[in-house]
TrEMBL record:
Ligand binding (3-amino-2-oxopropyl phosphate): 21, 32, 211, 233-234
Name of the protein: Pyridoxine 5'-phosphate synthase
Pathway: Cofactor biosynthesis; pyridoxine 5'-phosphate biosynthesis; pyridoxine 5'-phosphate from D-erythrose 4-phosphate: step 5/5
Protein family (similarity comment): Belongs to the PNP synthase family.
Enzyme category, top tier: transferase
Location relative to the cell: Cytoplasm
One biological process term in Gene Ontology: pyridoxine biosynthetic process
Pfam family, one: PdxJ
MF term (GO), any: pyridoxine 5'-phosphate synthase activity
Function description: Catalyzes the complicated ring closure reaction between the two acyclic compounds 1-deoxy-D-xylulose-5-phosphate (DXP) and 3-amino-2-oxopropyl phosphate (1-amino-acetone-3-phosphate or AAP) to form pyridoxine 5'-phosphate (PNP) and inorganic phosphate.
The keyword Chloroplast is assigned to this record: no
Cellular component terms per the entry's GO annotation: cytosol
Length: 262
């Protein structure tokens, strides 16, 4: 049995894995030609700190993650972190399959984004999209790569995701993030819990992502059963900046002080 696409456990009771999305590190890096911040160094640091996975979403316009990043991360993980999950997201009708075929990550998350889309903002339409997805899901799984479908939290759609051959779904959490802390939070969470239950009931694993953050994550995981993995980028990288400012300023002040020492 291929361990990468072993049948999904229910996920209940196990702690959720944190996969760090490095898109925004690449976005900042791309504003100069200096190679900083380094995407591979960021990967090493977050893994050293305990993250369980690395996610990238190489968009066709290469506004952040570029093809060389996908390959360099694959090489880093293969060499230094062989048990860490590599998750590549994207549209399989655009550029994702080239990466899947070349890199064979542990997981490919199929996302129905348009070319040049600002950010992901919807899941697949099932059953409408099934027919065109089936051959690509089959090819990806045959390469030993787990397939997760980016989905809105619609319980009835989960059995179609299973019929299409997917291993997991990634619940698109923007609607939860924007409802968090408002009177709508409980109702929205109940919808996500129902979608997760429906996915688990047909044997799918459940991932979640988009606009999750330090503030809203725990409430989500308490309410939604069986979430095996969350992929978090935007808020996490923003937090890393803010949590890192103080130490960084102290370090620069040490450098300045050093210049005045006799
Ligand atoms: C599928 C998903 O939710 C993430 O890939 C998210 O869209 C990040 O992409 P950007 O960093 O390009 O916004
Ligand atoms: N799959 C979601 C992801 O990788 C990161 O989304 P976000 O935290 O950048 O919104």
């Amino acid at each position: 049995m291929n361990p990468l696409i072993a049948p999904e456990a229910s996920g209940r009771g196990a702690h959720t894995a944190l996969s760090v999305n490095l898109n925004k590190v690449a976005l900042l890096r791309n504003t100069r030609h200096l190679g900083i911040p380094s995407v591979t160094r960021a990967a090493g640091i977050v893994l050293q700190a305990g993250a369980q996975g690395i996610t990238v979403h190489p968009r066709p316009d290469e506004r952040h993650i570029r093809a060389h990043d996908v390959h360099e991360l694959a090489e880093l993980l293969r060499r230094d972190w062989p048990h860490i999950e590599y998750n590549i997201e994207g549209n399989p009708f655009h550029n994702l399959m080239d990466f899947v075929r070349a890199v064979r990550p542990h997981q490919a998350t199929f996302v129905p984004d348009a070319q040049g889309q600002f950010t992901s903002d919807h899941g697949w339409q099932l059953p409408q999209d099934i027919e065109r997805l089936v051959p690509l899901i089959a090819e990806t799984r045959a390469l030993g790569v787990r397939v997760s479908l980016f989905m809105d939290p619609i319980p009835e759609a989960m059995r179609h995701a299973r019929e299409a051959g997917a291993d997991r779904v990634e619940l698109y959490t923007e609607s939860y993030a924007s409802a968090w802390g408002t009177p709508r939070q409980a109702e929205v969470l109940a919808g996500f819990a129902a979608a997760a239950e429906a996915a688990l009931a047909v044997g799918l694993g459940v991932n979640a992502g988009h606009d999750l953050s330090r503030e809203n994550l725990a409430d989500f995981l308490r309410a939604v059963p069986g979430v095996q993995e969350v992929s978090i980028g935007h808020a996490l990288i923003a937090d890393a900046l803010e949590l890192g400012y103080a130490e960084t300023i102290r370090d620069y002040q040490r450098s300045i002080a050093a210049a005045y020492r006799p």
